[in-house]
Every structure is written in structure tokens, then in C-alpha cells.
Amino acid sequence: MSIQEETVHTQNKIEVKDVCFDYVDKKSSFAALDHINLSIKEGEFICILGSSGCGKATLLGLLNGLNKAKSGKILLDGKPIAGPGPDRAVVFQQYSLFPWLTAKGNILFGIKQSGKKYSKKEREEKAEEYLRSVGLAAARDKYPSQLSGGMKQRVALAIALSLEPKLLLADEPTSALDVTVQAQVVREMLQVRKQFGMTILIVTHNIGVASRMEDHIVVMKNGEQREYGTRQQVIEHPQNEYTRYLLSAVPELEA
């Protein structure tokens, strides 16, 4: 195989190859991830689904470069992830906004932190673009104390976008929100993927959230990858007993 053919063959945004990770202390060790394999293409929206303790947050931490795998490889654009970097941004479960800045001010701060040399006018234009992308143009001058939980989470999403990452990681971004607001946030994330062509990986325990995904779902339990397929395959035709249990145990997201 030629170099050119090999490059074409491996054009995945993310490659997780046989990754294992243990939490170790002086007395014992715990296998948090056991031989995980994923291939994620540019622009895909991937959901890691599982209950607490399944290893999904650990995998997210490895993708963000906060920890190093015990064995295996994690590649971003064909290069090993060696630590945190500006090519990745995270939307956390608990949004953290500066209370003395408006929604737009928080986003402008994110733009400044991106390291891009934009003029003041360009920063203003980009902040407005990100506000529109998450449906908050009318709330640009509101402070966090004046925003609902869902609106705060959408500001946090806009801040992550302002960093212009190659990969957006979302750690249970809807778990602190009520069901109808969860649906709204998921719709905004899908719109962001469509508008910016961004690769997004979300971890959640909520099958209702997972059922809204457009690409692939990975089901995890006890550090193991139990099922991996398209949304239709996993939600409508689950092959794994644990996946069927999740589908029966968690309520669906309201429209």
C-alpha cells in the first residue's frame, strides 16, 4: 500500500485503539476502561451512553488529555493526544460563567482566550455569530443571574465554540436541566454540528438524549464497550442485553 493510499484509508478524526485505563492507589487498582475501540469521522456527532461508573467520563478525560491510557492509542487527526490543547474544548455538566459579565461578555472572553488575533470588530461579530448559533441573540446583554439553566448551558456551549476547537467534548451537558430544556440544548448542539461542521462527542446516562443523536452511539458498562452502532441500530434494534435494559429503564425525552 502506498503512503497516499494509507493516508486516505486512515482519515478518521479520532482513533481509539485498544485503550485500557486503570485507577491505581497504594492498595489496589480498578480497571476503568477495558480495550475500547472507536473510529470517529470528521463532523460526526457521537454519543457515549452508560450509567454512572461505566467509564464514559474516564474516556472523555483521555480524549481531553487529562490522563494517559495504560495501553493502546488515542489519535486526533492521526497524532497521539499527549495532553490538553486548544484543539479541544469541553462543555461541562455544571456551567461556569463569570457572573459580572453578560452572555456576550462571557463569549468575548472566550474568543480572547482562543489565541486568535482578531480585531475588536471581528471579536464582536464572532460573539454575535455564536450567540445566534445557540439561539441567544436576544439575551446578549443579560447577566448569568438573569438566565435560566438551559440558557446558561447554551452560553457555555457558545464559549466552547468561541475557542474554535477541532473537537467538542460534552460531559453530561443536560443532566442538570429539566426534560424539555434538555431537548432544546440537544437541538442546539445538532445545529452547531450542522453549522460549523464540528466533530462532537457527548457522554450521557440519558437514553432520551442519546436517541436524539444523528450518528453513532457507544454503549458502555463496567469499562467495557457493550454495543456500538448507528442510532437506528442501537435504539431501534439493540443487540446487547444491557442496552435493552437502558431502553426500558430511562424515560424518553419530550419533544
Write the layout of secondary structure elements.
Layout: H1 3-9, E1 14-24, E2 29-40, E3 45-49, H2 56-63, E4 71-76, E5 79-80, E6 88-91, H3 103-113, H4 120-133, H5 149-162, E7 167-171, H6 179-196, E8 199-204, H7 207-210, E9 216-221, E10 224-230, H8 231-236, H9 241-249
Parallel strand pairs: 3-8, 3-9, 6-7, 7-8
Antiparallel strand pairs: 1-2, 1-4, 4-5, 9-10
Q: What's the helix count?
A: 9
Radius of gyration over C-alpha positions, nearest whole angstrom: 19 Å
Instruction: Estimate the helix proportion, in percent.
Output: 25-40%
Please describe the biggest sheet, giving its number of strands, its sense, and whether it closes into a barrel. Answer: 6 strands, mixed
Number of distinct beta strands: 10
| CA(first)-CA(last) distance | 49 Å
The string of secondary-structure elements, in order, is HEEEHEEEHHHEHEHEEHH
Major β-sheet strand ordering: 6-7-8-3-9-10
- Described by the principal axes of the CA atoms, the overall outline is globular
Structural class: alpha/beta
Spans with pLDDT under 50 lasting ≥5 residues?
1-10
Beta-sheet strand percentage?
25-35%
| Mean pLDDT score | 86
Structure in words:
This protein has 255 residues and is α/β, with parallel strands linked by helices. 36% of the residues lie in helices and 25% in strands. It contains 9 helices and 10 strands. The strands form 2 sheets. A 6-stranded mixed sheet has the order 6-7-8-3-9-10, with helices on both faces. Helix 5 packs parallel to helix 6.
Give the tags.
four-stranded antiparallel sheet; six-stranded mixed sheet; single chain; globular; 255 residues; alpha/beta; disordered N terminus
